[in-house]
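Hi V.,

Quick status before I head out on leave. The structure for the redesign project is tokenized and pasted below; the design run finished overnight.
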């Protein structure tokens, strides 16, 4: 889920080495930003992690902000895809639980990306605030209307759609964003199989018994 190069020298016509170096920088930056946040990360840390000199890194990206923004831009669309996939034509229980499972799988498979996104939000989302107020809010309103239709049709118990989505985000992303805490409590055991079972039971309670 690392961002596709969009800026920098010869971004549209790069050599194999340039592509490799840009990829190394973005991968290293993802590690560093997910550990230290935007404010705590430095270009020196990213360059060291990538195995490049700082001047070499600055050939590809003019600033820490440019690297961070490219990662966020590459991440945002992917982060919204699971909600986009919720279909009004599907069985409501399957659609809600399927969305929850997709979000949980993203926390399992992309914990660094989850922490990158969380750190940006905790800092007030200065680089993606417009997307939150635009694309994300529009999508939440669209899917909220779908959920309200399911409720009106008696296919779901009455629940606030927006806060239902908030709770799915919180309970799935917790396993990535608080990975160290989860690991300490579970003594390093894989939390995801039991987490999926528990969340199936929890969110399954919003639907009438068959």
């Amino acid at each position: 889920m690392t961002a596709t190069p969009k800026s920098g020298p010869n971004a549209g016509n790069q050599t194999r080495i340039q592509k490799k170096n840009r990829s190394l920088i973005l991968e290293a930056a993802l590690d560093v930003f997910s550990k230290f946040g935007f404010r705590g990360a430095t270009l020196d840390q990213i360059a060291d992690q990538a195995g490049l000199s700082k001047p070499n890194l600055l050939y590809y990206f003019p600033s820490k902000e440019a690297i961070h923004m490219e990662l966020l831009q590459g991440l945002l669309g992917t982060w919204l895809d699971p909600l986009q996939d919720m279909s009004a034509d599907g069985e409501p229980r399957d659609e809600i639980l399927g969305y929850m499972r997709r979000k949980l799988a993203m926390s399992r498979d992309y914990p660094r990306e989850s922490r990158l996104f969380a750190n940006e939000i905790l800092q007030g989302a200065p680089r993606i605030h417009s997307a939150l107020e635009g694309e994300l809010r529009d999508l939440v309103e669209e899917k909220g209307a779908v959920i309200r239709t399911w409720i009106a049709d008696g296919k779901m118990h009455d629940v606030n759609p927006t806060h239902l989505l908030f709770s799915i985000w919180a309970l799935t992303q917790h396993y990535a964003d608080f990975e160290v805490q989860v690991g300490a409590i579970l003594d390093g055991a894989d939390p995801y199989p039991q987490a999926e079972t528990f969340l199936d039971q929890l969110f399954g309670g919003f639907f009438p018994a068959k």
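Above is the designed sequence. Residues 16-40 form the longest helix (25 residues).

G. will cover questions while I'm gone.

Best,
W.
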